[in-house]
Amino acid sequence: MKPATLKAELDVRVGGRFRISFTGDDGEYFEAGGRYREVMPNELLVFTWAWHSTPERESLVTISLKPDGAGTLMIFHHAQFFDETARDNHQRGWSSLFDKLDAFVA
Question: How many other CB atoms sit within 10 Å of the CB of residue 57?
Fold first, then answer.
């Protein structure tokens, strides 16, 4: 099965919420959501992140964008994990996503 975003609801403003659902490489269904804490267009996005199955395990994502020559440098930071296993699983997931993004924009 091909991974896909099934649904994304985004209210991108401070205090706004988001919810996304998607399937992984193996076809497993995932759903995550959170609340936007900081929104600076073309510069900074800070939001909470929690899986629908463990909403009490909220972590924090910070994405900074900076001009870099003719392009843009994205600095991605995901912190405040419940435990090392959650950290490692997120690292694998985000790495896979960024590999696909890199191939898409190349």
Answer: 14
Instruction: Report how far residue 63's alpha carbon sits from residue 71's, in angstroms, rounded to the nearest whole number.
Output: 16
> What's the DSSP call for residue 54?
-
What token pair was written down for 13? 């403003």
Q: Which residues pair with 31 in a beta bridge?
A: 21
Of 28, 25, 31, give the one whose Cα is nearest residue 8: 31
Residues of the chain with pLDDT under 50: 1
Q: Which residues of 65-97 are buried (b: 16+ CB within 10 A; e: fewer)?
A: eeeeeeeeeeeeebeebeeeebeeebeeeeeee
What phi-psi label fits residue 56: left (phi over 0), alpha (psi between -120 and 50 degrees) or beta? alpha
In this structure, how many other beta carbons lie within 10 angstroms of the beta carbon of residue 49? 19
Residue-wise pLDDT tens digits, 89-104: 888 888 888 888 888 8
Interatomic CA distance for residues 74 and 92, integer angstroms: 18
